[in-house]
Amino acid sequence: MEYLDNHDKSEIMNMLEHSGHEHMTDVQLVLGASNKLEELDSTTNYYNDFKNNILQMMYFISRTQKSNAGMFDERKFKKTCRGGLYYFIKSDDIVHDQSGPAGFIDDAWLANYIVTQIASEDSTIKPCSMPELSKAEKKEAEHLLMEESGKKTKDVKVIMYAAVRVLEKIKQFETVWFIKDLISSIKKLASIIDKFIKVPNFNENDYAYRIALGALRYLAKQDDLIPDEFGVIGYLDDSYVAKTAIELISKNSAS
Question: Cβ of 126: how many Cβ atoms within 10 Å?
């Protein structure tokens, strides 16, 4: 990107902000991008980085909580991400998508450029890597988890079955950075619950059991913090909640 001068950068940002995405909602853009991701050829050498950068953009426009408030114009970057996703969805861009694997090279370059620009001003966004939770976001993830853990459970097997269904659904995205963690967390949480329910008259108030069950109950919800209708990015909050559950259970057992 070093060969771009300020004029070039300004032209790109202006193009993205006014690309025609205004007629589409965030949900429509994210769903469209999720569907388009399935068209990518996984054998291309830039496949994983491109996919992860697209997901970073999807995450950025779907998040509701601001980070580094006041340090940069988040609204401008959201417009940029929206423009980038709209460009990705379009088939008749600079290099037509029907050109095979090479058809997405312009989309891949643009996605990397956008995420790199955001990352230069927002430390929670990193090209091709999972953004770390801020302290406020960690508290929010813990709050959501505790909210679900405090509810009474009528049928544990129903929640376990729902978790298995989610697990099967997200396996198609297992190359995505946070989905790998989520799959691992679901298996660990399900294993914890399974050990409890195999014991007659087990203690349903046990901390590990309540936390694990709460995390899986949250996972089964469709309309959570980032609704599952957003596609693969809709499971980002589930990943954070599940990871928080594992950390809390490990911390409690160690103390």
Answer: 16
Most confident of 69-83, 124-138, 191-205, 217-231: 191-205
What is the model's pLDDT at position 23? Answer: 82
Mean pLDDT across 168-183 = 82
Are 225 and 231 in contact by the 8 Å Cβ rule? The answer is no
- Residue 189: name the closest of 220, 230, 147 by CA: 220
Other C-beta atoms within 10 Å of 7: how many?
Answer: 8
CA distance 58 to 232: 9
Phi-psi bin for 77: left (phi > 0), alpha (psi -120 to 50), beta?
alpha
| Whole-number Cα distances in Å, 53 to 60, 106, 138, 233 | 11, 13, 23, 12
Q: 97: closest CA among 50, 51, 18, 40?
A: 40
Q: Which of 118, 130, 12 is nearest to 72 (CA)?
A: 118
Domain boundaries, the chain: 6-119, 135-254
In this predicted model, which residue has the larger pLDDT, 214 or 237? 214
Residue 123 · residue 191 · CB < 8 Å: no
Q: How many CA atoms lie within 13 A of 119 on its CB side?
A: 17
- Answer with the residue of higher pLDDT: 172 or 63: 172
